[in-house]
Give the backbone structure.
Amino acid sequence: MPSLSFSAPTSVDEAVKILAGAPGLAKVLAGGTDLLVQLRSGRMKPEVIVDTKRIPGMIGIREEADQFVIGASTPGAVVFEHKALTQAWPGIVEGLDLIGSEQIQGRASLAGNLCNASPAADSVPALIAARATCVIAGPSGKREAPVESIVTGPGRTSLAKGEFIVEFHLPKPKPHQCDAYLRFIPRTEMDIAVVGCAVNVTLDGNGTCTDARVVLGAVAPTQVVAEEAGAALIGHKLDNDTLSKLDAAAGRACKPINDKRGTIEYRIKIAGVLARRAAAIAFERAAKR
């Protein structure tokens, strides 16, 4: 029976040293809601597990002049209680709130959901749409990278040996900027997204879009920044013609697969529908700011 080493370091440097020195597969325990299930099922067989929750700053949210800083191991339940963040980015909170039950949300973290590297991760599209970045610690020190650069494929990330995410930097919204996240699932709750869509828009005083980002989930090996879909919104109000162009552009950004939850054609259709609906919510929210 293979041995399993468990460590709970109290500093970033200590965690990096353990991860970098692991002889085989090493995994970070941020929340554990994915990792523990994979361990029980035998899908994941690491030799080293490093629990980062005892490291100062890994749990908690602080507000700075131009951004929110979210510790990588901060559970969803803590995020929901932060009034300033939930008011600033309701779409990010909507995505995080869709991860499992209340019990799961007491443990599940943004870093865990991201580094599990599922194309259907609910908290990731809105983070990308908001242009969030993450601070990564490793043997060479710390570096900052956009969230969209982390996942490279199902179950795979760009993190090198010894690296782990320490915190997220989430810029504060500009005037008349807001977001929304929607997903489609076969059941009413606690299911994996067939398609997810985050829309982030900035409007001028007349309600015309000056900046937009549309991000899709569960329609490709990684989350997709639908550049053409975002461009379809810029310079326009949300009229029928703009919505039609958004719908078509979102569909063209998809590279889905057929599986038991949906066909390629179905996912492409749903992506356009969700993009329309999420854009309408984001526009409405932004106009009120």
